[in-house]
Structure formats: C-alpha cells, structure tokens
What does this fold into?
Amino acid sequence: MKTYNIAIDGPAGAGKSTIARLAAKELGFVYVDTGAMYRALALFFLRKGISPEDISGIRAALPEAEVTLHYEGGEQVVLLNGENVNGLIRTEEVGKMASVTSPVPAVREKLRELQWKLAREADVIMDGRDIGTEVLPDADLKIYLTADVSIRAERRYRELVERGETCDRDELEREIAERDRQDMSRAVSPLKRADDAVLLDGSLLTIEQTRDEILRLFRERREKTGDARQA
It folds into this structure.
C-alpha cells in the first residue's frame, strides 16, 4: 500500500513541530520531528565537550552516538544511545549547538537514512529545514510554514517562561533572526521553500487554524488522486 508523506519546512519558532504533531494525530500519521533528532546529536556533542567549530571532532565522535525513535501513545520518543532525551533537548544551549552542527554533512547523512526509512514504512508528517527540498522531494504535500520574526520570538519567550527559564525577549529575537540567516545561507541543505511547496504564513493564525489549513490542503490533494482512504 502506498504511504503518504507530508513535508513541513520553515524557520525556527514558526510552530512546525506543534502543528505537525496535531495534524499527524488528526490524520493517524506518524509524526517525525527531525529537529529533535539533530538536537539529540547536539546534546551528545555538548556532553562530550566538543566545540561546534571542531568539525573533525564531530565526525570522529559520530560512530559513538546512536539516535533512534520509538512511539509511546502516538508520541515520538527520541533515544540517544538508549536514553530518553525528550526532556533534555529543548534548551537554548542545545538549540544553538544543533543550529551549528546540523549542517555538517556527516551529521546529516547519519540521520537521513533513518528519516528515509520512516517515510518508506509509514504515513508520516515530517518537519525540519530541508524536508521538501532534500529529504522527501516527492512528498505528497509540501508546506513552507513561516511567521514574522517578532511573533516567533514572542512565542518562544512565552514557552521558556512557562518552563520557568529566565530569558530576554529582545535577545531571543536577535538569536532567531541570526539562526534564520545561518539556516538560509549555509552551504549544505540550506533552508528554502521548495518550488512546489505551499507558503503558509501563521503570523495571524492560531495553531488550530494553521493545522486545519494543512489538513484541508492534504485532503484536497488526495481527492484529486482518487484515493479511497479517508483522512
């Protein structure tokens, strides 16, 4: 039976993970958070004391790191060498490390095989920076999800405050803008909108409205193919 793939790309803080998770639940798809996979490796590098500039050290350490996914109650659990690291990879420190180390070709190659395998075996919604352009170029639906940088910073600020973390909102906005610049200008798999991706600006939409628009687009495309399965 054919598997369906939905690719969601976009800049940091656009709400990709939250929205993709909600849409996957509605459709009964597997949600694959590729950013969490890169964050798991970033956590590994931090624990090893490897500098983000030490590319040779990153390559040398990779064979010691094993990132796998499994699902509990429909939720993705990221395992780093068998350890559940879901609660450890959402810090700003890990995020910054992931932003710097994820463009390293050896890092991307290590995780891409797992991503391809997941997409071949199940209906998936996968989000990241290069899903529609590099990982799933033949996805049934591609979304480029974005939002104004000030809105993304405000959302991130509220998320961190709710966790009890101390942060500066203006500094967060500067960091997100810099991460955008890095992601869009990197030589390997830069963040960009795929030619056939639907541009979806969530600046003025709620999470639920954005999710519903993605569901509408997917169902519309499936109807055009004449597929009998219902979403």
Summary: Strands lie at 5-9, 30-33, 67-72, 75-80, 83-84, 124-128, 141-146, 198-201. The CA atoms of residues 146 and 201 lie 5 Å apart.
